[in-house]
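Supplementary Methods, section 5.1.

A reviewer requested that the exact input to the structure prediction be made available. We therefore reproduce it here, unchanged from the version used in the analyses.
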Amino acid sequence: MIPFKRILLCYDGTPEGRRALRSGAALAHQLGAETHLLSVVDSSWWSSGYDVLSSMAFEIDEQAARNVLSDGIERLSACGVNATGHFCVGDPVDRIATMADKLRADLIVIGHHHLGPFARWWTGERHAQLLDRVGCGILFEVSPDSTP
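The structure derived from this sequence is encoded token-by-token as follows.
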């Protein structure tokens, strides 16, 4: 029996994201798992107004996220993994949880970004929120060069 038949990889192009992508690709390849790659534009930090500048910022962020998604698909393909790409806009925790539920994922693979104590206090513990929202396993990858 294959423990993980459907894997959702979350990719943002950061060193931690690339490490998570490599680990997820190796696991998906070994297990022959159905693989999905998700790129999310975090809409929580930019203005929600309708002025020209916020519209331009969104278009730039959206294109960058689509480029990251394409890069991730290419990296997975180079590892021998065929993945379906998904692009979303919104709060990353919400979008990841929703996509994992929609796909009925058995495992989510995501990079972990180290935060200092103040940043963790200010932003809250987002990983805990994700853990509370999903009904599958989560593998957090940490890049060795990003340790505090």
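The radius of gyration is 16 Å. These observations are discussed further in the main text.
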